[in-house]
């Protein structure tokens, strides 16, 4: 390999800091934004834009607004409402990177409210994921190892000395930390012994010293009277751990294409050197040449949540999240309800013969929420432009901020023609957006 | 990707045109009326009879006095059964199955069960769904396992399986990778935009255009799926615009489910496995009328489905498999019903089945604590469906080698 693609990227005349790149940053590090927000990022310049994405200004006020909702969620015990609540957070949060990364961890430590059936436990897990989302990985794994929702989901609430439950130990190695092929069945058995006495009673975690196996365990090549937290430390020191987490971060934030080991090996090393500090590594990723090259630009399929929240944020829509939730379920991605312990597969699995039509229908549903006859939710108010100029601007704005790859020229021309048949800007958008949703490029992010 | 392309190739053979710019056969874009799968891949439709179907009152051993001794109020009289031979007969409500039998299109496998029967609905259904015992890992369904991307020889088309219905998705379909979609209505394939015809014309034109950045596999996959999706919606349009049920099908839930499955098959989806359920077989009390209705719904829907597929040329490549988590006890209870039992018959119908009765009817005298003894392990049915129908290796899915039954005329 010639150069390290994880070194910082700098804008240049050939690769300028422009709307396309600012929109890429907002999509990947969050859920997209309005044309105005994207133009603001462009005007700030690359370095300041990057710093702003990591800022949490306004978060306290936002949390104060959301707290009463959380209380009503717990008292209602209606797990479906958790999904609406999270969608609302994604649409409104002033710190999208934090929410997006929390969502990443939710897919990584996939746990479904469908089985857990306890809103309070799901909410506690959500808070755990958010607390550590941009922090260090080890305390996150230690927290998840004693998280009641996770243990209920994996049928691992009972872990007796004489009958260690291997479910959690297996997933810890296979899915959460190392990936298949990096451990033996014996490692799983020994690891399970470390977690004996870790129980869930009345949906609360407790350590039962009478049920803990305090004998010597051997994991990989290390032996000792390890407990659960020791075991997590040993697992994370395995060379496969940094690779596994780096690979998942790159897959989530950069590309659905395969990435060869050599390409993300430097990132894995950085992760290890920085004690698995996720916030630091994300900063490296988001400023890297890999992230700003054609290896990442347009190389993700937009997931259902990104599709819905992206449009809601682009037009600052007031959509009823209970309606959105129903449609996302049909599209295969409902927050708090991952399909299995592996989480959402993502990539091209989002698109099939039934979901493609449903995605167009979702777009139709959302554009109907744009107030009719308004001057239009795109940045600049229409002043003296002719109908043709205005329709051209609308299409170019939408392509700049939504499309990671430009559709064919003839298609763009047809879209402009379609837009010019509508009256006001808002009506143009309503007319063209469902048609845009049928264009393959629309679904790249 | 490769698999999807292979599928397109297989479907159209060497004759299909491929445009210079697109790797999608032209035929997909231009011939919406053409059925894509006239010689397409084999399809399995699973009908789950939930609740525990009373096998003894389905395929009735009317030639056995023990049947009449044990079923003092529930027995179907000799004169009323639809005779198969001088021992077996169909329940009179199963005229649909009887007609399929006359046409040599239905096979019955008798005495299907498993060792150490469990009489809990959940345990027994989990076992049928996963083909694994309690102590084993039960996260994956027997069908789900053959859809996993890392499973050699598995089913690798796009949208390999579909669950159609409002109920929770059966565990049989659980995967670790791409989940199997649940479709609750054909409306999900309906394009909900204004001026649909014009819209589709524009989209067709766009999908045929060359793209910048050819070689972006993500984009190519999206485009391939868009083409299939829009052809499907177009083909289904006339059906889903109709507010009433599909013609020639009974208006029952199962009838309408199978009608929808037939439409999806005919619309040319690449889907190989469809799964529907027909619940309510837990007949602990006053079984006679309730069971008759359930069987009527089953038989009539099956008959309509077979007729429909025959007319549209899909009957030879479609096999329907109907099973229940267990049968019911031999002796009826004090509430004119029957309690959870063990072995029972399963059914297979379609244009390619080797029609007739397979295996022996379980003895009504030689019982296991009042229950029929099984003679055919349910996994031999799965092995047969997987190997001989779907052409999928079964040993790792079923955790072992099982013999296969001669229920298909042209085993793959």
Could you give the topology of this structure?
The complex is a heterodimer of chains A (445) and B (412).
Chain A lengths: L18 H10 L6 H10 L1 H8 L5 H18 L2 H14 L3 H13 L4 H4 L2 H14 L4 H9 L2 H6 L13 H11 L7 H10 L3 E4 L2 E4 L9 E3 L2 E3 L3 H10 L1 H15 L7 H13 L4 H9 L17 H11 L6 H11 L21 H15 L19 H16 L6 H12 L4 H13 L8
Antiparallel strand pairs in A: 1-2, 3-4
Helix pairs in contact in A: 1-2, 4-5, 5-17, 5-18, 6-8, 8-9, 9-13, 11-12, 14-15, 17-19, 18-19, 19-22, 20-21, 20-22, 21-22
Chain B lengths: L1 H11 L13 H5 L12 E8 L8 E2 L4 H6 L11 E2 L5 E2 L4 H8 L3 E8 L7 H10 L11 H4 L15 E4 L17 E2 L12 H13 L8 H25 L11 H15 L5 E7 L7 H25 L6 E7 L19 E7 L5 E3 L17 E2 H12 L5 H4 L14
Parallel strand pairs in B: 1-8, 1-9, 5-11, 5-12, 6-7, 6-8
Antiparallel strand pairs in B: 2-4, 3-4, 5-10, 9-10
Helix pairs in contact in B: 4-10, 9-10
Report on the structure:
Chain A is mainly alpha-helical. Among the domains of chain A are: 48 residues, no CATH class; 126 residues, no CATH class. Chain A has 22 helices and 4 strands. In chain A, strands 1-2 form a two-stranded antiparallel sheet. In chain A, strands 3-4 form a two-stranded antiparallel ribbon. In chain A, strand 3 and strand 4 form a beta hairpin. The longest helix of chain A has 18 residues. Chain A is globular, with a radius of gyration of 23 Å. Chain B has 412 residues and is α/β, with parallel strands linked by helices. Chain B has a single domain, classed as Alkaline Phosphatase, subunit A, CATH 3.40.720. Chain B is built from 12 helices and 12 strands. In chain B, strands 1, 5, 6, 7, 8, 9, 10, 11 and 12 form a 9-stranded mixed sheet that branches. In chain B, strand 3 and strand 4 form a beta hairpin. In chain B, helix 4 runs parallel beside helix 10 and helix 9 packs parallel to helix 10. The radius of gyration of chain B is 23 Å and the shape is globular. Chain B starts with a helix and ends in a 14-residue tail after the last helix. Classes of the chains: A mainly alpha (445), B alpha/beta (412). At the A-B interface, helix 19 and helix 21 of A face helix 7 and helix 8 of B.
